């Protein structure tokens, strides 16, 4: 517990379980979509899948993580047709 207090005194906080779940969820969806897009030859979907895997590194708020993730998933879904 001493380490947690030391981190908090430096202004570093641990992410919430909802944030960690979102990172894992959208990362797995991104990997699956990347493999699908690569197999079917869809370049735009492939790049959207890469963005889906990498954007959690740039987003620190949980609500924004889910909004961007759903938007990227919708973009891949709209590109399928």
Which short descriptors sum up this protein?
mainly alpha
Write the layout of secondary structure elements.
Layout: H1 2-9, H2 17-40, H3 43-54, H4 62-79
Give structural notes.
The structure is a single chain. This protein has one domain. 77% of the residues lie in helices and 0% in strands. It is built from 4 helices and no strands. It has helices at 2-9, 17-40, 43-54, 62-79. Helix 2 (17-40) packs antiparallel against helix 3 and helix 3 (43-54) runs antiparallel to helix 4 (62-79). The longest helix has 24 residues, at 17-40. The protein is elongated, with a radius of gyration of 16 Å. The termini are far apart.
Short description:
The chain has 81 residues and is mostly helical. It is built from 4 helices and no strands.
The helix content, as a percent range, equals over 70%
Q: Approximately how much beta-strand content do the residues carry?
A: under 5%
User: Measured on Cα atoms, how large is the radius of gyration?
Assistant: 16 Å
Shape summary: elongated
Instruction: Note poorly predicted spans.
Output: none
How many domains is the backbone divided into? 1
First-to-last CA distance: 52 Å
Order of helices and strands: HHHH
Structural class: mainly alpha
Major β-sheet annotation: none
Number of strands: 0
Give the helix tally.
4
The oligomeric state is: single chain
**What is the residue-averaged pLDDT?**
89
